Amino acid sequence: MNLLSIIKRKLNMLLLMVLSLITILPIWFVISGSFMGSGEFTQSFSAVLSDTSGKVSWPLIPNYPTLRSYIELLIDTPRFFVVFWNSCKQVFPSLIGQLLIAVPAAWSFARFDFKGKRAVLTLYIILMIMPFQVTMVSTYLVLDRLGILDSHWSIILPAAFSTFPVFIMVKFFKSIPTTLFEAASIDGAGEWRIFINIGLPLGRGGIISAMILGFLELWNAIEQPLNFIKTPSKWPLTLFIPGISPEKAGISLVASVIMLLPALLLFLYGGQYLEQGIMVSGIKE
């Protein structure tokens, strides 16, 4: 390796480190800000909170760290646990619905040839790339007709029929060598047994990556509950945090940290599956 290659490698590493630091800084600011006292917070952000002239200062480490905001949120704000539970009631049933619907659908698309298969797959892709704003009115009318507006089902039902996990899982199931299916069929295994003993274990990466991406999307969703749920007692965390007054900004930062933790844990323990899902979904048929 010559000197020029070594220099280019070092510069690339330095650039990646700088970009990583820029990405991590906002997260660190939220975490450090959650340990600020009300006096320090007001002093640092007085220009924003009081709408006056001046500069905002955000220290990397609080000068006087305190757990007061955590105590105020977790002990003195019982509504936080209500909205946290609302998020759980909306997210986890949606993921279970995606498992029950998307996994068999993806297996059918990957394993069987039937009339109109390509047209249906194309329709799935079109629905997947459509932004929520395009389908919002039609979804609202359907939910209203079903009588489930302003309920958790207005979030769960559309999410359970999401086409994105099907797209991810089809790629994984198609990547399984067909020789395994042929050998299992010769040994007398039926389609159900092939699906349980071969499809699910070998397609586990696609299923997990789809569930991780689905969780992140639903956990951070704000437009769907904002349009379909009007009762504040049924709001998830994503609608609770923006409603906190500027005087309680410390509580807002603590709530943001708690909301961020599940996503960080998922990236920590499921990052390899997520990377596999991104790689496989980028492979053309």
Give an account of the 3D structure.
- It contains 15 helices and no strands.
- The protein has helices spanning 3-33, 38-44, 46-49, 68-74, 79-111, 117-129, 132-146, 153-160, 164-174, 178-186, 191-202, 204-219, 223-228, 237-240, 249-281.
- Helix 4 (68-74) packs across helix 15, helix 5 crosses helix 9 and helix 12 (204-219) runs antiparallel to helix 15.
- The longest helix is centred in the middle third of the chain and has 33 residues, at 79-111.
- The two termini are 38 Å apart.
- The mean pLDDT is 84.
Can you lay out the helices and strands and say which pair or pack?
Layout: H1 3-33, H2 38-44, H3 46-49, H4 68-74, H5 79-111, H6 117-129, H7 132-146, H8 153-160, H9 164-174, H10 178-186, H11 191-202, H12 204-219, H13 223-228, H14 237-240, H15 249-281
Helix pairs in contact: 4-15, 5-8, 5-9, 5-12, 9-12, 9-15, 12-15
Would you kindly provide a brief summary of this structure?
This protein has 15 helices and no strands. With 285 residues, it is an all-alpha fold.
Query: What is the CATH third-level topology name of the largest domain?
Result: MetI-like fold
Number of individual domains? 2
Q: What is the H level of CATH, i.e. the homologous superfamily of the largest domain?
A: MetI-like
Order of helices and strands: HHHHHHHHHHHHHHH
- Determine the structural class based on helices, strands and strand pairing: mainly alpha
Q: Count the helices. How many?
A: 15
Q: Judging by the overall fold, what is the CATH architecture of the largest domain?
A: Orthogonal Bundle
Number of beta-strand segments: 0
Mean pLDDT: 84
Low-confidence stretches: none
**Largest pleated sheet:** none
From the N-terminal CA to the C-terminal CA, the straight-line distance is: 38 Å
Helix content: over 70%
CATH class of the largest domain: Mainly Alpha
Percent range for β-strand residues = under 5%
Describe the oligomeric state of these chains in a short phrase. Answer: single chain
Question: Whole-number radius of gyration?
Answer: 24 Å
The outline comes out as globular
